[in-house]
Amino acid sequence: MSSLKYLLGAAVGAVALAALTVSASALTVGFSQVGHESDWRTAFSKSMQDEAKAEGIDLKFSDANQKEEDQLKAVRSFISEKVDAIIIAPIVVTGWDQVLKEAKAANIPVFVVDRDVDTKDTSLFVCRIAADFNLEGRLAGAWAAQALKGKGNIVELVGTVGSAAAEYRRTGFAAVQALFPLIKTVKSQSGDFTTQGGKEVMESFIKATDGLKDIKLVWAHNDNMLLGAIQAMKEAGLKPGKDILTVSVDGVPDIFKMMLSGDANASVELRSDIGPDIYAVVKAYLGGKKDWPRWVVIPSDLHTIADAAEVLKKKGG
Ligand code: AHR
Q1: Is 0.85 surpassed by the pTM of this model?
Q2: Which atom of ligand 1 is nearest to the CA of 164?
Q3: To test the ligand 1 pocket, which listed residue (173, 193, 269) has its Cβ within 8 A of the most ligand atoms?
Q4: Which tens digit of pLDDT belongs to each residue from 214-251?
Q5: Rounded Cα distance, 215 and 252, in Å
């Protein structure tokens, strides 16, 4: 090889390698977040912001305050700003096709995180990076079935209607419950994933059931609704965690504190520190790794009083 050819070959190799290891500091990423409705959501936003800072990514962060129209507006403004990638944590599963087509037409890759979309055209987003909400519901259902010894009435605090987190958790729990015909859901209502919503719904359950008479367990689609429900039960002179068992999802520090004080029993942990996992996929995609599974799964697991102190310590609580 002549020295000129050798030099050219080396230069082409270097360019190819650089293309595969895209520099984070050169990236502008738009992130449309659901809102700040729960402690889990706030921790997840922090993870996304902290990691962007650590990586030198220019993050355009938009909090949709649980309003679907704000979320669509944010995505359209990321498109007009010509960001390198768009990350969406969708509030509800429906209504995404049009804006995803607009991002595709602008050649901007989209990554769906946390909740799901019902879009059938797989070319409209690269992949979803998220926990298995159905599994979370099944883990909660299995714990409930065991704790109730296969028998008892329960009440359900549902998350945001139309969100994947509420729908898949509900389906997962119901699948296990179907194996135990003596476990019956007597009340079920949405508290919109908020502490206040959970409190208000539980107050109405308490009124409608003569003080939760014959109710053995509360199943809440997230910890914050349960935290509100615990407050309502205590104000009504009831003993959550003892007379009324509890199971929920998220694993936020306050729920472990409730377990340690005997007011809550079990929670399925949804990891919130997933900023690094998400940006790793985005950076690799932009660097040339285009083949991703449709769903990159983040693991979830169940915690009880048995490991509450240990988990709380790990979370710095
Ligand atoms: O989508 C995940 C859910 O959204 C969390 O479980 C809940 O706390 C949040 O509001």
Answers
A1: yes
A2: 1
A3: 193
A4: 999 999 999 999 999 999 999 999 999 999 999 999 99
A5: 25
Residue whose structure tokens are 């199971």:
247
Cβ of 170 less than 6 Å from ligand 1:
no
Task: Check if the beta carbon of residue 299 is closer than 8 Å to that of residue 133.
Answer: no
Distance 110 CA to ligand 1 centre (A): 21
Cβ atoms within 10 Å of 271's Cβ, excluding its own: 17
3-class state of residue 184 by DSSP: strand
State the pLDDT at residue 25. Answer: 62
Token reading at 181: 């015909």
The H or E element that residue 63 is part of is: strand 58-63
Residue partners of 226: CB distance under 8 A and separation at least 6: 157, 198, 218, 220, 246, 248, 255, 264
Please work out whether the CB of residue 225 comes within 6 Å of at least one atom of ligand 1. no
Pairwise CA distance, residues 290 & 271, whole Å: 25
Q: What is the reported pLDDT for 16? A: 39
How remote is the CA of residue 38 from the centroid of ligand 1, in Å? 7
Query: What 3-state DSSP class applies to 129?
Result: strand
Find the 28 Cα to ligand 1 centroid distance in Å.
Answer: 26
CA 105–ligand 1 middle distance (angstroms): 31
- pLDDT for residue 65 is more than 70: yes
Q: Which amino acid appears at position 301 of this protein?
A: D
Alpha carbon distance 302, 247 (integer Å)? 10
Of 8-12, 23-27, 115-119, 267-271, minimum mean pLDDT range: 8-12
Residue with token string 């929670």? 267
Count Cβ atoms within 10 A of the Cβ of residue 203 and give its class: 0-12 exposed, 13-18 middle, 19 or more buried: middle
Q: Does the C-beta of 249 come closer than 6 Å to ligand 1?
A: yes
